[in-house]
Amino acid sequence: MYTHIQIMKHTLSTLPLSNSFVSLGDSFFSRVYPTPFETPAVLIHFNTHAAELLDLDPAIYSDSKLAMDLATIFSGKKTLPGSEPIAMLYAGHQFGHYVPQLGDGRAIILGETINQRGERWEIQLKGSGLTPYSRDGDGRAVLRSTIREYLCSEAMHAMGIPTTRALCIVGSADPVYRERIEPGAMLTRLAPSHVRFGSFEVFYYRNQFEHIRKLADFVIEHHYPQLLNEQNRYAAWLECIIARTASLIAQWQAVGFSHGVMNSDNMSVLGLTIDYGPYGFMEAYDPGYICNHSDHHGRYAYGQQPDIGLFNLSCFAQAILPLLSEEPEQAVEIAKDKLAQYYSFYIEQYALRMRAKLGLQDSHGGDEQLVKDLFALMADDKVDFTILFRRLSEFSTHDNVNNNIVRDLFVQREAFDQWADRYKARLLTESSLDEARSKTMKQVNPKYILRNYMAEIAIRKAEDENDYSEIGRLLDLLHNPFDEQPEHEHYAGFPPDWAGSISVSCSS
Ligand code: AMP
Ligand code: MG
């Protein structure tokens, strides 16, 4: 007879909190408390899926009194037992230029907890007021950007893409001054670690090499323990980070996601998608798609992301050179060797994902060209990325069934027909069965993604009417991106005409 395993559920006051990062010493962070809002804090939305990561008892958010407690805590008004709030120091390459000091200018880590599965989760408030790293900023986040990060990070997670998670949004009537006056909010986000490439760069450019080692040892011990016995653990670690970053970007490309601000301070050493700003999911396929309206030269355009990944990894490798070898020339050789693997990691991951998107089981010599030709046609005809792949999941290899639902997406119908004939022939080489293939393709080609207009509807309702219901509706929808959700069919269609006028930039 087995005993029943009981999972301990915590209230916020029993949540075991600590902060292992403070053991590094105060060269790595600043101790700073959140600055609560001046007007009352309101719990705008709470994500029960993320709450499970902290082993929080669902009872804590099913009661209105407790919702007030959550608003008080996650707006920084009340400090949780064990919390040692800090803002992290980092630097980074922004749009290709090194900026010697950035740091958490508006984010504060409250602490971390280790859940019953042994997972470490840091709890961070974003928009929680000034820190020593705020520079010219006000330390605040606007409700608009908070809703965007909340929804997108959860959408990415549901699609299996590594990301920070989002626990809740707390809002207030406090005005925040951007291009216009906007309501402020705080996002509580969770990640095993918020350490970035830039967390290492800051010490490299200050010649504080001992700090690089200390931070690397900390990250390896907590997040890459499998490397502790490696002979050159730092080289092995660099390789892991290169592989994870390559895989992450391949996953972004495979869902048409553009990060928008791929500065090296926005690159996680765990290979997570982090710091959602002016991101976007591409609609009409265009490798030059720029989601960030401040990115005038398209440095971070969709099609540039794989190359920018390598640029950022080179910045990171440069920063850890002192760990790779005592002999500077040898350190450079090791870094170069590791970086040289980036494209093969990337291509392998990308090809794997593209094959899955096309429902191909084996790998054939002509597959790459087949994919390229599809994308060339999609680019010419401005075909919607998400809708195309979802409809392609219903492609038929039978002569007596037409494929008009896919064909109708193209202007150049004959060119599509030629491509479709090649695709059909390719599927038949592996005796692909329509029904089974359709099922597996629908597990990788999402039906629902977070289009800008969808986030915009949730934002407008929240800003104009204090109506937060759309946030919950979208969160539920996006938690199941691959499932048919007939009641939400309208979200699976083309964006409305007004979506073209939405503009997102860095100012959030
Ligand atoms: P981001 O591009 O949003 O990742 O931000 C780049 C840097 O600017 C980071 O150091 C942020 O903490 C900081 N920052 C962005 N917005 C603000 C703000 N409103 N107040 C203070 N610092 C900010
Ligand atoms: Mg950032």
Word description of this protein:
The chain has 508 residues and is an alpha+beta fold. The chain folds into 3 domains: 12-194, no CATH class; 198-349, no CATH class; 359-441, no CATH class. It has 17 helices and 12 strands. Strands 2, 6, 7, 8, 9 and 10 form a 6-stranded antiparallel sheet that branches. A two-stranded antiparallel sheet has the order 1-3. Strand 4 and strand 5 (97-99) form a beta hairpin. Helix 4 packs across helix 7. It starts with 28 loop residues before the first strand and ends in a 30-residue tail after the last helix. The mean pLDDT is 95. The structure holds adenosine monophosphate and magnesium ion (MG). Adenosine monophosphate (AMP) binds at residues 102-106, 133-134, 137-140, 261, 266, 275, 277, 506.
Overview in brief:
The chain is of the alpha+beta class. Helix content is 40%, strand content 12%. It folds into 3 domains: 12-194, no CATH class; 198-349, no CATH class; 359-441, no CATH class.
Counted beta strands: 12
> Roughly how many Å apart are the termini?
56 Å
Helix/strand order: EEHHEEEEEEHEEHHHEEHHHHHHHHHHH
Overall pLDDT confidence: 95
The number of helical elements comes to: 17
Overall helicity: 25-40%
Unreliable stretches, pLDDT < 50, 5 or more residues? none
Domains counted in the coordinates: how many? 3
Bound molecules: adenosine monophosphate, magnesium ion
Q: Report Rg.
A: 24 Å
Q: Strand count, sense and closure of the main sheet? A: 6 strands, antiparallel
Residue share in β-strands: 5-15%
Tell me, briefly, the overall form.
globular
